[in-house]
Amino acid sequence: MKKIIISLAVLCIIIGKSFAAEPIVKLPSIPDIAVLELYEDSEELFAMKVLEYYQYAVAYRAQMQIWNPGEKLPAIQQPTLDELTSTDVDIIVKYYTIARQMNGIVTQLPDSESNIEIKSLRNKLLACALEKEEGEKRLFESQLDSKHLSIYATKWKHFISIIDSLVFSIDTLQLVHHDNLIELRRKLNKLYLNQWRHYMPILSASIEGYDIFTRSDNLDSKLSVGTTISLNAAMLLGLGRNIEFYFSYIYPKFISTRTRPEFYRLPGDLIYPSGDVKWNSDMYILGVKGNFPEIINHENINLGFKFGGGYFWGDGKADNIINSDFQMHGGVINSEFYISKFNTLVPLEVFIGYTGFIFTEPLVLNANAFRLDLGKPYFHSLSFGMRISLWNDHCYDLLD
């Protein structure tokens, strides 16, 4: 009999802990100072650690907002670019302190109605258990006759039926609480995804490859690499989220075919057995694009489109040939399709694009006695690459 009473008491304690107000995610302890100093050696690890504690703080704040929808909650400032790149451990401590404070507020949230009812049922269960134990004690100590034993047996059955009823009620409330917890997690996940879906890249960088088509029998190109810095002018100039400026650098490599066998050779010149000349060049592009970021959105995956134009310039020289050069000037038109998924604190995009180079001045390749005049050609290219956002901001704050 005592074992049954002890088991009921343990059951009540476990039920009480299961329905206590707890944070939706557990905040780990901050590393010691020796480990923190390691983050000063890596900007990437440092930024990830700061954003990790910022993510905990946002999750706790969202939990409080769903738990008490009408209550005004303090805003949580997003880490700035200077903070993410400062590698000062005080920044990590700052955002850990914010997350710990929000964690403490969550643990002090008032009990829900289902929790209060469970506690009331638990008190009744304890009262019944104590009454049953007292009845058993009197039964064995007084050594009552069979009539009294029959009466207590009836009471015992009555207590058992009450306990069964209470256990059934607790199981029902547990099921309801479990469903409510699943719904809370679903809302938090939706809130988190919507928060990042409406974030807008302000400053981004990309690396890409170019396959340039010269449309000439005398000039060909190899696969070229380049990089681009893009600045969304929305927050700076008030032009909306659909306008961005960009600067690109491309390292094209060309191969020209000599039109005649004779070639004036200076000391140090290298004449290729094939009769071809290899050219290295630097090309720069400055332009503006229109950005349409959500043509298609499916499960937080966005398909976007960009279209724009600009001006390009550059120069180049032949490989190992003295007194060789050429100049490039003209306009560009470009377009691209890109896919992005903002499901992390570091948004990434992959893209494929088209670029047309419209020369406004003749393209003349000079290499000693060799001269190739292509007039004012039109080059076009296919590009592909990956872009990472360096500075983000959201269109509106979903949590305020």
Give a quick rundown of the structure:
The protein has 400 residues and is of the alpha+beta class. The protein is 40% helix and 34% strand. α3 (43-67) crosses α7 and α6 (113-142) packs antiparallel against α7.
Structure write-up:
- This protein has 400 residues and is α+β, with helices and mostly antiparallel strands.
- The chain has three domains: 22-107, no CATH class; 113-196; 201-394, Porin.
- 40% of the residues lie in helices and 34% in strands.
- It has helices at 2-18, 33-39, 43-67, 81-85, 89-107, 113-142, 146-197, 234-237, and strands spanning 199-213, 219-221, 224-232, 243-251, 253-257, 276-298, 301-318, 324-340, 348-359, 364-367, 370-373, 378-394.
- An eight-stranded antiparallel beta barrel has the order 1-3-4-6-7-8-9-12.
- Helix 1 (2-18) runs antiparallel to helix 6 and helix 6 (113-142) runs antiparallel to helix 7.
- The radius of gyration is 36 Å and the shape is elongated.
- The two termini are 56 Å apart.
- Residues 1-20, 259-274 and 396-400 have low confidence and may be disordered.
